[in-house]
Amino acid sequence: MSKIILEKDEINNGVNRNLKIVSISDAHDDGKDKRIEFYKKIYQTILTLEPDYICISGDIIEAGNTSFANIESLIKDLGQLAHTVISLGNHYLQLDDYNKQVMYDWYMNLKKYSNIHPLDNDSFETEDVRFVGFTETLDSYLKQHKDEWKKMFIENFNAMNVCLDDSKYNILLAHKPITKEYFDLIPSMQMYNLILSGHMHNGCTPDFLCEFLDQFDITRGKGIFGQYNRLFDFIDSFYNGHIHEINITLEEKTTRKLRLK
Strands of 53-57's sheet, edge to edge? Predict the structure, then answer.
């Protein structure tokens, strides 16, 4: 588990308070009961943190799994602790049309549970926080389209129809990590106070190695390992249980408004 402290951020609705968000992602539930004990540990850890919100940034289901009971039970229980906001990931997009529809129907039906908010290029908001769940197209994940990733990403992002303003703390759930390059290319993205991602499973890289590699321009600000290498996929499998506790202090500021599309 990691603890992140953002000492101060600002919104314009007169709210001044501390905000705690717990972020997890990439459960890749395979439907097997061996995951039940793992989910119990996740629940107990989050219970002790007493968050205001819980965010799950994609890939809650492993592609090919059609038994959702175990992960659904965890999500239902998390909703008893706090508002739980979920976004979609690439494993959903990789399914064939039939299974994609089955998974999507199940996913959207999670909203039947108290405080559960599955998002798909739309938003959920409370008095002082707005969450947006961004879903890219499958092509923007696939290696053979690498030369077009930037164009696809911008088109996908700008196609969302959500309203952002500084009266709320705006949080983007985007499964694939967003680098500073993309952040600078899309003015509307700068309206977000916080971006939560998954996909890289904690980066697959130990902190000491990140610190070393970041000295070189070739790696700074970029994911080191991609998802199309068998060795790194094996390493990747050990990093699907990370929990981030994010502590934020909200203070008042002046307002500016922007409507996306």
Answer: 2-11, 244-252, 17-24, 53-57, 83-87, 116-118
pTM (two decimals): 0.82
Q: Is pLDDT at 217 greater than 50 in this prediction?
A: no
Half-sphere exposure of 200 (CA within 13 A, CB side): 17
Alpha-helical segments (H) within the chain: 36-49, 69-79, 90-93, 97-109, 149-158, 180-185, 207-213, 230-236
Nearest-5° angle of CA 193, CA 199, CA 201? Answer: 100
pLDDT digit string, tens, across residues 6-28? 767 778 877 788 999 999 988 88
37: left (phi over 0), alpha (psi -120 to 50) or beta: alpha
pLDDT tens digits, one per residue of 43-92: 999 999 999 999 999 999 988 888 999 999 999 999 999 999 999 999 99
Instruction: Give Cβ neighbours of residue 84 (< 8 Å, ≥ 6 apart).
Output: 53, 54, 55, 56, 75, 78, 115, 116, 117
Query: Phi, psi (5° rounding) for residue 250?
Result: -95, 135
